[in-house]
Structures
1.
Amino acid sequence: MKNLRKIIALFLLIFITGTVVTIISINKTLEKNTSPETVEVSKDSIKDLKNDKKAV
């Protein structure tokens, strides 16, 4: 019975340690990708083509 308690305690220790390490590594990965995203806006060329055809 004492050995069973030791095995369960060891399993719980390994499980909790693995969970904490995983959470910390995921948080570090998510913090690295917090750079602001930039979007370039350009004028749509389809409107220019339609205007040129109407001007003829």
2.
Amino acid sequence: MLDEIRDWFATHELDGGDFFACPSGYPFTVVPPKPGTETILYSTKTDSIRRLVHDLEGNQTFAAILRGGLPSDDDLYWFRSQVGSRQLLFWGDADPADLLTFAWLRESLPIQYCGLSDNILQQCGVELRDNLTIQLAESEVAALPLVTKCLGDLQSHLGSWCSGLLSSGRKIEVEALFSFAKCTPSELETVLLESGKEV
């Protein structure tokens, strides 16, 4: 499955849909752990997590490894050294590229999904409306069978609304949550970290 996902990214990089395979040594942005930090977020949404850290005034309870694209095989050893015994959570869009990145990481690391889902959106007070969604690129639509093959029932990860969007050729991204959440940054942090424990 690892090779199948990597091959998909490698052959669709120019087709839209955020399918970018990072070369070995491509840099990460890191929010370092503090003493007692128990959770590390891996996220493709660098700007969103940096915004959350800013809004929390640096008092976040998580560390983070941030970078778009599919990691390289060489990154896995480094991930393990950074995570150690901490909980590792994946935060990203409810779209094929991020879901395949999560599936790829899950093959080698004990990582839980806390990306966009019905549950997170509703807990943060975001109404599930079509005008928050974006049409899938053709390459993203074509990737859906591989997403289902790798993750099984998408409803169990995303909920019925977010998974239904994908089936209808649409998606929702993290920016919608940050734009329309009706909760404090601290409450948003709690929702993210708790959602990873539920999966």
3.
Amino acid sequence: MKGLAYILLPLLSLTSGWSQTTGDSIWYTLPFTTLMENTGIEVRTDSLDHYLLTDHSNPYLGKTDLYLVNEQDEKEFIVLIDEESIFPQIKFSSHVANLMNNENDHSIAFYSLDEYFILTELRADWAADAQFLIKDQEAINGYARSFYNAETNVQVTVILLAQELPLLKTPVELTALRFK
């Protein structure tokens, strides 16, 4: 019986880096948590109810820093973090353009967020939203936000994919990440 405990305890400590909550802090993976601490990013856990860590990937995005799935609402939450980002608008546009279907006509709406909201809530110097159709997946909509911290040259792009997204209301998931 003691031998089993010696085997299970190290396994539990290894899997704790993949758990969702530890008290008030959130741990998705150890690399992502370390990246958050190094770049000054906070996660509001109340914006990500029912989301679970997944090993999914998206063929058009390449490496993602975080990929969460809410299976009951059929939503995917993707985070990309660009350190040393000199032109955040261009990087954001390229992330969004890579997901869009370039062959069909569709509308893309960019919204400039209120400067006060950016400075007080996001604590970011630049932000934008876009709504678009995903390449090869006509039934899925995408909604993206990018924000940039000029002091650290870090840009965070958040992409939300879902069957239905509100057209005139920013989904709550897009408020989950912000700079400290």
